[in-house]
Amino acid sequence: MSQTSVRPRARRVSGLAALLAATALVLTGCGASGLDAESAAAADGVVIEHGHGSTTITEKPKRIVALGWMTPDIVAALGENPVGIEEVWGAGESGYQPWFEEFVTAEYGETPEIIPYAEEGPNYEAIKELEPDLILGLYTGISDIEYERLSEIAPTVPYIEAPWDPSTWEDMTRTVGAAMWENEKAEELVSETEELVTSLADAHPEFDGKSFVWGLTLNEGGTDLGVYLEYDPRVRITESLGFESTSAMDSFLATAEGDNWYTGVSLENLYDVDAELFAAWGASVAEGEYTVQNKVVSRWQPIEAGSYVIYANDAEASAISAPTVLSLQYILPTYVEDLAAALAGEPTIAG
């Protein structure tokens, strides 16, 4: 097996602040603050249908509380620094995910208030003190009762279809754009990001048609390898770069329980899973090394060929697990570089 590259990650400058500043200049003067004609004409404001009913936003919001994953990125990219956010997985010592902190510092000169953790549900008092005119929490599990209490503070948009289901990053960008009366700018951001993905795929024709599995590292003594399903963001992003999901995906789907976006493959059946590449995330570099050194896993096609990428860095794993127009700018160049190296037999375990 090829020697694995194990290395810490340095922060990378995304350059998205300059890109979005240019986009904002182009959009200035487009009318209705970026609102499309249909929404601008709606006498009662913008109406967002969601998992708890519908929310009407009667004027363009300026003080937005962004709860959970992904939403803060989109709000900032669309032209408003959130007045408050929650600390989420992948945040550094500062409490902010690195790409978000970098962007809002460059674009707005300051970071939002971090809403203190509450034992049960949202911190209503802290949110109320921020005097929001809109609360967004599309990637959350906000319950009926929590939605009602938040709506007493400000118009609230929770998850759209189901708890902890963000849909695609494109749809989420468009939904937040509609709520912020910034439909046109949202479309611009989606297009710019899709162009980035396309350009990276075009630069790596060797990705085209290569089969892959996205999964998790093994816990010590584990007998199942966790794998993600076709609708998981990690899988979708990798497919958009030219790869093809393993032919075993149908069997993955058949064994998944409920609405889970992942399942497990027994190690005794691992050799039946065809894949030329394995990408995964784990709790630590040591866990990644334990996985690839396992006597069964080590003989599985992509591991034996050295064609694997394992992220044990929370920020990198978070950036691709919950992709946004900001996090994709941050992670994709690195991810593509690591994928190309893996296909050349140069694996990576990054912590």
From TrEMBL:
Q: What keywords were assigned to this record?
A: Signal, Transport
- Fe/B12 periplasmic-binding domain segment(s): 63-347
Q: Specify the signal sequence span.
A: 1-32
Name the domain of life this protein comes from: Bacteria
Main subcellular location: other
What are the subcellular locations of this protein? Cell envelope
Q: Which family does it belong to?
A: Belongs to the bacterial solute-binding protein 8 family.
Protein's recorded name: ABC transporter substrate-binding protein
Native species: Leucobacter rhizosphaerae
